[in-house]
Design a protein that fits this description.
binds zinc ion, 11 helices, globular
């Protein structure tokens, strides 16, 4: 685990590279993306999961996200897997750890590979709406997330906690509170999912969210998923204008999905995505990655933007 101050020191004025999609890459490999991946007897699926993480590292990721997005107790209960919560979260972070170790082993001189690398324990939505829109109590949401965070941090493998794809700022705040309940020092990164007007489905505006989440204790805040890297530019501008100093993260989808020959395909090639994300640089982001539909090739192009900037 790395505490917030040390993480911010490492980050400095640099740009770290996140990873890309896990779910859509696994789908492309014909593997189940649901948490039952971890309790199946098919060891090969877990090996492939580690290989996806490894591919992101080889293509420039500094932060890889363990496949724990849907592994909170409320989501797991819906899938009939609540009793497996420990097993599922632990196996997911171990898969990420195996990838990091094998990446570091691939360097003859380990110093060559020692750019900062972090494993993020990933928290996604519960899938239920908080009151008054649904029947989930804020306190129950906090309790649920804290069960998952406790398991993730006890592994001693997760370095940071990344909360993402939140549509309701109150659910995001419940997750942030849960992390702080378990450990006050840990680095929290949080991203919401906005539409092309920079508003979430629940009506939360990007320019408001940036300050609310920062005040709640997040080290880095931003946006992920949604409508694609070109349309996310407006959200980038609004968040930066709302707060000139905050550390920002953006991990857009590779455009919108469509069905082609029975397969889901995303509209943005690695080249298009990198061209769009290049425009974000003016607004001084701290972490850039990608979400649904992206691949290690997209991450390579995004990482290339930063290298070009340094030259
Ligand atoms: Zn996504």
């Amino acid at each position: 685990m790395i505490n917030k101050n040390d993480f911010l020191k490492t980050l400095g004025n640099n740009i770290l590279i996140g990873d890309g999609a896990m779910g859509t890459v696994l789908q492309g490999l014909g593997i189940s993306t649901s948490p039952d991946l971890f309790i199946s007897k098919d060891a090969n699926s877990l090996k492939l999961l580690s290989e996806v993480h490894l591919n992101y590292l080889k293509n420039g990721s500094n932060i890889i996200q363990a496949n724990t997005f849907g592994a909170n107790p409320i989501k797991l209960e819906t899938a009939g897997l609540k009793s497996e919560i420990k097993n599922i979260n632990e196996k997911a972070v171990i898969c990420a750890q195996i990838a990091v170790e094998s990446y570091k082993d691939s360097f003859r001189n380990p110093k060559d590979g020692l750019r900062p690398i972090f494993i993020a324990g990933n928290l996604g939505p519960t899938g239920k709406l908080l009151k008054p829109f649904g029947d989930l109590d804020y306190k129950d949401a906090v309790d649920a997330f804290s069960q998952q965070v406790d398991i993730l941090l006890k592994t001693k493998i997760a370095d940071i906690i990344l909360i993402e794809t939140m549509l309701d700022i109150n659910e995001a705040l419940a997750a942030v509170e849960a992390v702080k309940q378990i450990n006050k020092e840990v680095t929290i990164i949080c991203t919401l999912t906005f539409n092309e007007n920079s508003v979430t489905i629940m009506g939360n505006k990007a320019e408001d969210a940036v300050n609310i989440l920062t005040e709640a204790g997040c080290a880095v805040v931003g946006a992920n998923c949604s409508v694609g890297s070109d349309k996310m530019l407006e959200t980038v501008k609004k968040m930066r204008n709302a707060n000139p100093d905050v550390k920002l993260i953006f991990q857009p989808n590779a455009g919108l999905p469509s069905i082609k020959d029975g397969k889901t395909v995303y509209s943005e090639t690695p080249e298009i995505m990198a061209q769009n994300i290049k425009k974000y640089l003016e607004y001084k982001p701290s972490i850039l990655g990608a979400c649904c539909g992206s691949t290690p090739k997209h991450i390579k192009k995004i990482a290339g933007l930063i290298q070009n900037q340094l030259q």
